[in-house]
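Example protein
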Amino acid sequence: MSHPLLDRLTALLFERRARGWLVGGSVRDRLLGRPSPDLDVVVTEDPALIARVLADRLGVPFFALSHEFAAYRVVMPEGHLDIAALRGGSLEGDLGLRDFTVNAIALPLEGGEIIDPHGGVADLEQRLLVPVGPDAFRDDPLRLLRAARFIHVLGLKPGRGVDEQVRRQAFLLPEAAGERILSEVVLTLNDGRSPGAFRVWRELGLLPFFLPEVAVPASLRRADQGTTLLGHTAAALGRLEDILERPGKWFPGPWEALEKRLAVEVDGMVPRPVALRLAVLLHALGWAAVPSEHGAEIAAAVEGAEQVRNICGRLRCSVALTRLLERVVRELPALSFLSEGPDGGREPARYLREASPFVPECVLTSAAHLLALSPATPWRKTADELLTEWARRESGQSEPFPLDGRLLMAELGLESGPFLGEVLREAGLAWEAGEVTDRRALLEHVRGYVASRRGPGPRGIINGPNLN
C-alpha cells in the first residue's frame, strides 16, 4: 500500500507508538480499481494531534470535520486525508458501526492482511449492497440516501430485502440535517448520468422525503404539454447530460467559454455541472401550481422560484447556489419567448441583464427543458447568440458603459432613489441593445427618457431646469 501521504502518516504514527488503518470508501474503491484521491484513516492516537502535526510537516492546512466524532481533514492539492478516532473501543468495534459491509473493510497502514469481519469483500465481488447491522438506517438516516448513491454510482445491487427495508424506513430521512442531505445529493449527481440517480431515488421511495416538491403524483400533467411532471423532469435531465457531454455540438459559437465556465465550482463545494443538474431537477416545480393553464409559464416560473428558495433554506444551500437555482427557474420561459419574437431589439439585452450573472446556467437549463418537450429546436439560434454575446462580454470585448449614477445626477439633476435606478436600467438597455453607440447619443437618449417620464407637478426627484 504505497502512497506518499500514507507513508508520512505511517511514520508519524510509528513515532507516536500508535496504529492506523485505511478504512471505508478508500479500501472499497481500491478493491474496485476506482481512482480515489481522498483517503480515510482511523487511528489509536488523538486524531486532532496527528492531523495538526502531519499538516505542519507537509505545509498544508487542516480543519475539524466533526468535533463530535473527532474527525479532521488534512487538505492536499491532489485530494484530502480524513483522520478520525477509532470508535467502538477496537477496530472491529469501529467497523461494526459502519453503514454497509463494503465500507466495513480495513487495511493496516503498517502492512498486513485485509481485515473484513462482515464479509464486505465477498459482497463487493458479487456487487451486493448489504447493511452492516439491522439498525444501520435508524442509526443514521442519511444512509438511506447513501444506499441510493452506491446503487447508482457503483452499480451495486441491494442485498436480499434491502430495497424494501429502505422503502419502509424512508420516512426517517428528514431527521438528517439539511446540509448533510445536500452533500449526499451533490455526491450522487457528481458521478454518472443524472436520470439514473433520479430513477433510483424514485424506485427506493426516497424522493418524497427529501424533495417532496418534486415528488408530485405521477399522474399530474400539464394539459398543454401532454406529459407528466416526473416524466418531463427525467427527460430534461437526460437532455442536459447530452448537452454537458458535447457543449460544442449544441452551441458551437461559445463552446470554449462554456467549458471554462463548467470547470468553475459554484461555491467551493458544488461543481457547476452538479448545480445545473440540480437546476433541471427543480426547474418544473411551478407546474404543480398551474398544471392546466395554457400560457401560464411566467406564473409557474415565479411560483417555482419561490419553492426553490424554500428548498434551499431547508437544505442550507450556500447563498451562491441559492441565487443560481432561483434565477434559473425564474428565467425558464424567457428563451422560448425570445425565439418566438423578432430578431434583434432590446429583448436579448434585457435577457442578458435579467439572467446575469447566471446566463449560461439559464440558457442550458431552458435548452434541456425545451428539448425534453420537443425535438424541434427553433430556439437554438437564439440560445447560441445569447451565449456568444455572454462569452464576448466575459472576455472583455464589449465597450464599457460610458455613464454612471453620479454623472447622471450631476448632468441631469437627478436625485438618488428609485427613479435614478430606473433611468440607469433604461440607459443600460439602450447601450447593450446597440440603440446608441457613443456617450453623447446615450446622454441624449437618457434626457429624452427622463423628459418622457416627467409627470405633472413636483416629483421630488428631478430638477427641471437641468434637463434643458
